[in-house]
């Protein structure tokens, strides 16, 4: 048998192992040996909180009330709400809070979050701008935790932590999604200790307003592009777990897929447009970018290559064992699929299922990107 088939199998298997396990272990070890110091101190810079929403009349009041109740001096806090072409009474509901100082800007034409953010950035007066979504809620001390690291002049962006809570209709898929999110935060926490996170959490992140550049109106992932462009200028992107935003875990597999397809299509867009990210000479976060972003986009191809070549090698005893392990994994994923909307949770099934679900959404995300069918505008997932 040609040496090519075993080489493809082992290359695929090792890249999968590195992507899922090796890189998290590497960044943990790196942070343990050579963590960069982080400076944190109490301070109260002027902060502008930017929220963009489309047809959010059912939750905009609660969201603004949440922001007004934050533990931060009112005279140092500015809240800007941008209604992105809403066709319901979102803007009217938000304007009820104008007497409290909330600035509401209603855009007649729907353009997407990136375009509205560009306009809000231009109007913001705060030294620090904080971006969030209409769906989540901030912890009462989230702003203080976010702005603390900015006492270090090397810090350009601070990402908060999204806490996923179980909704009343949570299903088995939520166990896998919750595990995946904890795994993701483990990586981000140690990337931050090494140097910088590769992007930020869209639900809650802050940046120095003076460093924010306008981004293309059709940008899907503002929370990755804005931070990475700031990092390119020599600043750090930190992960601050004390700055918390709360959201519920996806209730169904379909809801989780809807969210992830958009994110993955945005990652393809980012890496194709910002080609400097894949150059070790232009991107000091090259290893993190390739390991955390690029290789994950290749996992569907790696899964297929590892399984197909393993089948071709199954006559050998060693490869029969590796094939049995793969069959067991995909059987568990199929069982997780069958139980995806059940209330009973079986992590040994739901985790393999979510891994395969993410691989499937990666394929759909690539197709959406390649065929230009991933629109910059968004719809509510739940």
What does this structure look like?
This protein has 382 residues and is of the alpha/beta class. It has one domain. Helix content is 49%, strand content 15%. The protein contains twelve helices and eight strands. The model has no long low-confidence stretch (mean pLDDT 90).
Overview features:
382 residues, alpha/beta, 8-stranded mixed β-sheet, 8 strands
Task: Provide a quick synopsis of the model.
The protein has 382 residues and is an alpha/beta fold. It has helices spanning 4-34, 60-68, 90-95, 113-123, 142-147, 173-194, 222-232, 253-273, 286-297, 299-312, 317-338, 347-370, and strands spanning 47-53, 77-84, 103-107, 128-133, 137-138, 155-165, 204-208, 236-248. The protein has one domain (1-39, 141-382).
Number of strands: 8
Shape: globular
Low-confidence stretches: none
Please give the domain count. Answer: 1
* Cα distance spanning the termini: 51 Å
Count of runs of 4 or more consecutive helical residues: 12
Helix and strand run: HEHEHEHEEHEHEHEHHHHH
The helix-and-strand class reads: alpha/beta
Report the mean per-residue pLDDT as an integer.
Answer: 90
Radius of gyration in whole Å, from Cα?
22 Å
Share of helix, binned: 40-55%
- Main sheet attributes: strand count, strand direction, barrel closure: 8 strands, mixed
Strand content bin = 5-15%
Strand order of the largest sheet: 3-2-1-4-7-6-8-5
List the helices and strands and how they pair.
Layout: H1 4-34, E1 47-53, H2 60-68, E2 77-84, H3 90-95, E3 103-107, H4 113-123, E4 128-133, E5 137-138, H5 142-147, E6 155-165, H6 173-194, E7 204-208, H7 222-232, E8 236-248, H8 253-273, H9 286-297, H10 299-312, H11 317-338, H12 347-370
Parallel strand pairs: 1-2, 1-4, 2-3, 6-8
Antiparallel strand pairs: 4-7, 5-8, 6-7
Helix pairs in contact: 1-6, 1-9, 1-10, 6-12, 8-12, 11-12
